[in-house]
């Protein structure tokens, strides 16, 4: 006897089979989505960035005479950098930065023999615990000077670096350990300790710096203490050299009133290498200028936006008060103008003049160069990417 299957039963069986297939598809899709989620969670994010800055510089007043040149990095040093992060979960990320400076005027690297001369560090960053990094990094003293104190941002002819001590390890430090706390209502602390790495003496050549910072709304402020050990460990038959520490204490403030942004800074420098002269004897004196072992530096400045044109007028006045018997004081006044051409590109013009007293030898430079005379003029263009 042949048993016939009714159409309704066949339809119900096909429906069950289709539902099983759909369940399997959904399960497979969920597994694939989960796999992608895990991959995305651990995925690294690397950014390539940089600055292309060049212009015409005119310097006068130096012993070698006036000079006109095409210069790279007048407002901000030309650079190429790589910045990366990887989400490790639970608010923790791995981070790194590799940044190299170059000269746009001739295409050479900014520092011969060093690939990532500007920054080279790796570390961990936590939303709740702060950030810890190891490598070549900015000194908190320079961060406060360039980002908070100086309306010229440590660039152009009006750079605060012309009178404030910002050369060498006062800008970037190798072999450095930096810890930055999270922000608490706009307040955070930044600390650096750099090893001197001299055999036989763990303190020789070391540097430490700590900055107490506040940034919220229109107010930005920073108080930084920087201490540089100038000792040299013994090597072979050469005995150790014990020297005084170089100490810098900087208070920097700016406040944005919208119609004008006001800047002010005061720094106390004391000890060896606390206030070096950028150029040994730029003006050809019979007796070369002497680096001060005790000095006070002061700055007042403004940024004034020009309506909605994208233009900004910049001006500053600085004073170096040498408190030693040499009394080699110096004053600088500077004025500049930047014009935004787009979100990434701007044109600029700047002029600065230094008045040296009693054989002082300070020069008008810019972000990339220390300068050769007591006056400087800039005209250039800057692009970021």
TrEMBL record:
The keyword Ribonucleoprotein does not apply. It is a multi-pass membrane protein. GO terms for cellular component: cell outer membrane; pore complex. It comes from the Bacteria. GO terms for molecular function: porin activity. Residues 28-358 form the Porin domain. It is found in: Cell outer membrane. GO terms for biological process: monoatomic ion transmembrane transport. It holds the Pfam family Porin_4. Keywords: Cell outer membrane, Ion transport, Membrane, Porin, Signal, Transmembrane, Transmembrane beta strand, Transport. PANTHER family: MAJOR OUTER MEMBRANE PROTEIN P.IA, PROTEIN YDDL-RELATED. Homotrimer. This is Porin. It comes from Pseudoduganella dura.
